[in-house]
Design a protein that fits this description.
The chain is about 30% helix and about 30% strand. It contains seven helices and nine strands. It has a seven-stranded mixed β-sheet with strand order 5-4-3-6-7-8-9. A two-stranded antiparallel sheet has the order 1-2. Strand 1 and strand 2 form a beta hairpin. Helix 2 packs antiparallel against helix 3. The radius of gyration is 17 Å and the shape is globular. It binds S-adenosyl-L-homocysteine.
Length: about 220
């Protein structure tokens, strides 16, 4: 029954291809990102009851007041992070359901992902294991601390919006490294790209976004 449903239903190849076409229309150019998103089954990361909506261009609840980011923003952030090619190590803050993590694991040699809600982290770990993604390490912690043991990072991707860039994340960037991060301002959130040079940090403001807040502590 399940198999038959997958063959003809909302989680089929055709449904995924529709998502890819929409992403292209929205301006996603990277063929590698589009191919990976066509390949990774997004529906396994959401509750069964929502699986039929997994490929729509929308954020969906994943429990604990959190959401899986909409496909466009996942694609955009990944494309921005890997604009200059492959990265050795990537730090992700906000594992959530692990879908973005799965995508990062396709492009980075190793992904270090930090989540403050233990139950979400456990579920994500299971899904990524099922997908045979073994180049991912998990930490249950407040991402504001980063993960200093494995720094410096070529790439840092943050999926929750702080009011300013956490200093420790800046410190853990390699020279030449890139960080993609949403920042919450009074008038709304904006996506920023930060590049560490030998002497400073260059900040580029990209587009308005809408992420859950970056919270401190663990639960
Ligand atoms: N890319 C994820 C986004 C999930 S929402 C996905 O698509 O599923 C953002 C996640 O960031 C939530 O799981 C939330 O618990 C986590 N988060 C928020 N603040 C955090 C912090 N300080 N440290 C670690 N994780 C944090």
């Amino acid at each position: 029954m399940t198999l038959r449903f997958q063959g003809i239903g909302m989680t089929s190849r055709r449904t995924r291809e529709r998502m890819i076409k929409r992403l292209q229309e929205q301006g996603i150019r990277s063929h590698a990102v589009l191919a990976a998103m066509c390949d990774i089954p997004r529906h396994i990361f959401v509750d069964e009851a929502l699986a039929s909506r997994a490929y729509e261009d929308t954020a969906l609840p994943i429990g604990y007041n959190q959401t899986i980011s909409q496909p466009y923003i996942v694609a955009k952030m990944t494309e921005l992070l890997f604009a200059d090619g492959e990265l050795r190590n990537v730090l992700e803050i906000g594992t959530g359901c692990g879908y973005q993590t799965a995508l990062l694991a396709r492009f980075a040699e190793h992904v270090y992902t930090v989540e403050r809600i233990l139950q979400l982290q456990k579920k994500a770990k299971r899904h990524l294991w099922d997908l045979h993604l073994r180049n991912v390490s998990y930490l249950h912690s407040d991402g504001g601390w980063g993960w200093p043991e494995h720094a410096a990072y070529d790439g840092i991707l943050v999926s929750a919006a702080p009011t300013e860039v956490p200093r420790r994340l800046l410190e853990q960037m390699a020279v030449g490294g890139v960080m993609i991060i949403p920042i919450a301002l009074q008038e709304g959130q904006e996506l920023q790209k930060i590049v560490r040079t030998k002497t400073s940090f260059e900040v580029e403001v990209l587009e308005p976004v809408s992420f859950v807040p970056f919270l401190s502590g663990r639960s």
